[in-house]
Amino acid sequence: MNEKIGFVGVGRMGGNMARRLKDCGYQVVAVYDAQSGHSRDLAVEIGSTACATLAEVTAKSDVIFTVVTDDAAQLAVFAEAGDSLLNNARGKTFVNCATLTPKTHVEVERRAQKAGAANLEGCMASSIPQARNGTLYLMCGGEQSTFEKVRPLLEKLSSALRYIGPVGSAAQVKALVNMVMNCNTAALAEGLGLGQALGLDLDMLREVFAQTGANSQVLKTDGEDMQHRAHDCYFSAAHAAKDSGIAYQLALDCDLKLPLAKATKEQYDRMVSLGLGGLDKSGIAELTFKGRHA
To answer: For residue 38, what is the domain's CATH number?
Structure first.
């Protein structure tokens, strides 16, 4: 546990990952966030330094986790000019945990290797409580030697750790995971919405779903929330729209038609256009239950 750890992006996921590693005895020495209040508050809480620049994070750290919002943010923190994590990055290791397009992960690795740094995808298929408790499902892509180097660190964050293959491959798998999850969520919202319209007891309906082929992980996590309109955000509709878009673009690149994925993407895009993107993904039920949102 001698590595000095830095974090870029310390919102709900990155902040809780930093807390977890601190609890495990690691030195979390540097935190940075585009919303500086997040990094200042977390630094006070865990005894770290809220860095004013990305270059300062790299200077203080041996291993740097990035947990940012999208491709543009990822490429910005690895900019090839100006303030960047790549400044004096030789010998450092980056672990990039955001859900991004595979091509962005490939480009970040190219830039990191050019700067003499090691780089790894650490794609997460879990949510906020798992980040805090160290029970993430982590899918990793990149050089296997880099994966093995940081494996003891990743094992403190994960209850299920899997090496997928070369850089970009973990992002492909993560896109498919989220595509299927989002389709399941949209289907569940329609099933419960139709059940309500038919006058069925939704507690009974969810119990029946759980014992039949209608069962799914999202039934456990989102079914009751859909019924009771409890859409506190763990995985936002805006992120669901983004991730569905990543998977659908991969399908287009393969000249493959995925009508269910396309319809699900359109539903989450509609949520964003209606100003509902900040709701949890369970909020898609607001589009399917009669008497709710238009």
So the answer is: 3.40.50.720
Residue range(s) defining the domain that contains residue 150? 4-165
Report helix angle 259-273 to 237-253, nearest 10.
Answer: 140
Same domain, 21 and 158: yes
pTM recorded for the entire structure: 0.90
Structure-token pair, residue 76 = 């910005």
Please name the amino acid found at residue 263: A
In the block, residue with structure tokens 């974090």:
7
Q: Which CA distances in Å does 148 have to 3, 31, 92, 235, 274?
A: 14, 24, 15, 29, 45
Cβ pair 30, 48 in contact under 8 A: yes
- As for how many domains the chain has, the answer is 2
User: In which band, very low, low, confident or very high, does the pLDDT at 294 lie, cut at 50, 70 and 90?
Assistant: low
Tokens read off for 120: 């790894």
Backbone angles phi, psi at 67, to 5 degrees: -135, 75
Give the Å distances, CA to CA, from 137 to 2, 134, 159, 160, 224: 24, 9, 6, 5, 24
- CATH for 197: 1.10.1040.10
